[in-house]
Amino acid sequence: MIGQTKSLAPRLTYDGIVLNLTLDAIQVNTLVIASANASVYHEWQSTDWHTLSVEEVQKQLSADVMSGLSTNRAAERLKQYGLNKISPLPNPWLWKIFGYFFKGFGSILLIGGILVFISWKPLGQPPAVANLALGIVLLAVFVIQAGFNAWQDWSSSRVMASITAMLPESCLILRDGLRSEVVSTEIVPGDTVFIKSGTKIPADVRFIEASHDLTIDRSIVTGTFYVDTR
User: Fold this and answer.
1) How many alpha carbons fall within 13 Å on the CB side of residue 177?
2) Hey, which bits of the chain come out as E strands?
3) Which residues form the Cation-transporting P-type ATPase N-terminal domain (predicted)?
4) pLDDT tens digit sequence for 75-114
5) What is the DSSP letter of 191?
6) Helix or strand or coil: residue 147?
7) DSSP 8-state assignment for residue 228
């Protein structure tokens, strides 16, 4: 997520706010915040971070944008909140396949098809060809809608995979008053992060200051190629 937007779904392990970014050599105050469980997630999600002052944000996150977190504090928070990455969902294939066939009107189609076949034989005296044709159509629709549900699920999984692939591998942060490069998954709540123009933002962020010509590409979120001006 980028800018002052919030995560789209609880499946995202981390929420972020940023306090000390660098865009085109212009200092931008940012601060990254993360959550690793549902209670903390909803607590932070309900907070309007963009309405808080820099001092209030630092106080809530126990952070200092000038020196960053200490190495020990960062290690504690990493252990507490976990890695800054999208957590994979459980993938029970048996239940997924069952859902492809029976969610929505699937069960109704199957029951209807069986009843129509029974009305064809043995109840039909004589068996009506129309009932046979209708039963075949209902079962065909039953199978087709299962295939469509499977295709939708596959498409959604590709979207999530593309979002994961867009996350940067590393980023520049401030620890113990010194800049250092770390793996983006090791960002923790309260980290001060530096981002240059063209760099992918590693977490949900909240801009405190930015240059007047700051633009953000949120096409992965909005589905359009429109670039936001902040």
Assistant:
1) 0
2) 21-23, 26-28, 170-175, 178-183, 192-194, 215-217, 227-229
3) 48-121
4) 999 998 888 887 777 778 888 899 999 988 899 999 999 9
5) B
6) helix
7) E
